[in-house]
Amino acid sequence: MKRLARELSSLRGETAIYPHSIADVDALAGAMVLRDILKRRGITSSVHLVDTANRQARKVMEALRLPIPSALPATDADNVILVDVSNPDLLGGLQLKGKRIVAIDHHFHSNHVRGYVHVERGAASTCEAIFLLAKEMKVQLNAKQSSLLLAGILSDTAFFAGANAATFPIVAELLKKADYAKTAAFVREEPDMPQKIAVLKAMQRAQYEKAGKGIVAWSNAGSFELGAALALTDAGADFAFVANPKEGRISGAKRAAAKGNIGKIMEKAGRSFGGSGGGHESVGGCRGKPEKTQAALDECLRLSRLLLLANSKIY
Ligand SMILES: [Mn+2]
Questions:
Q1: Distance of alpha carbon 189 from the chain centroid
Q2: N or C end of the chain, less CB within 10 A?
Q3: Per-residue pLDDT tens digits for 35-77
Q4: Domains of the chain
C-alpha cells in the first residue's frame, strides 16, 4: 500500500481513471472513491468508462445521485489509473501507449499491463484495497464514499458469500458512516418484468429427478437462462440446467453444498454441443449448434447425476 500511495502521489499532469470494460460496482465505485481520495491529496483526475457500466453499477450510481462517467476516451491524459483490472484484454482496446500506468486490482493475471501494478492479493474486492489506500493516504471517507465502497464489497462478494477475514473489519469501519440496509437495498438486483416472466415460465416447464442424495432439475427458456437455473437451485435443485434450443446455449447452476464444478461440466457439455463451454464452480454455460442442444443437455444431466452418487469421482 505504501508503494501504491507513493506512485499515486508522484503523478504529474492529467490523470484519467478507468474501471474495466462493462464496469461492475466494485470497479466503478472504486474508481469514483479513488478520484476523491486523490483530490484530497491535491491530485486532480477524472473517471471515464472504457465502454459501459453494468445495470447494477448504474443503479448504485443513480441511488447515490452520482452522474455516470462518460465513455469518451481521455486521449490527452498523461497518466491512466486502472481500477479492478490489470489485464489489457479487459480494457476494450483502450489506448495506453505513451502513458504512465498504475493499476489497482485484486485478481492476479499473468498477463498484465506494463507500469505499476498493485494487486491486493486475496482481497475479496478492489473496494477493500481503495479503503486501505484512503487510510494510507490519511483521507477520511464521508458517508457517500463509504456507501460506494460498501456497495462494491457487497456486489463483488455476493453479499459476503465470497468475503474473507479481511473484509469484515473494513466493513465494520465503513458502517460508521454508511447505512447498511439502504446500501444493501440498492445493490440487490431487482429483475425487470421480461426477466421475471422468463424465469417464471422456465419454472413452470421445469422437470426434476432425484439422483443419489440430491436433485437434478432442467428446463427451457428463450432468455435469462442463468436466472432460471439459479431460481431452480434456490428452489432446492442441487444441479439445474436451462437450455435455450433456439440460440443453442445452456446455462447451469449448482448449490454450494453439492460436489463438482459447473465449469468443468460445461466444458464437457460444450463438446457434445459441437461448441464450447466453461465457467466457475457454481455457475457456467456452454453454447454450440442449436440442433445439438438436447445432446448437450443430456451430457449435463449425466455428469450431474454421477456427481450426486456417493463416492463418485468423474474428474
Ligand atoms: Mn472486483
A1: 13
A2: C
A3: 999 999 999 999 999 999 999 999 999 999 999 999 977 788 9
A4: 2-187 (3.90.1640.10), 194-308 (3.10.310.40)
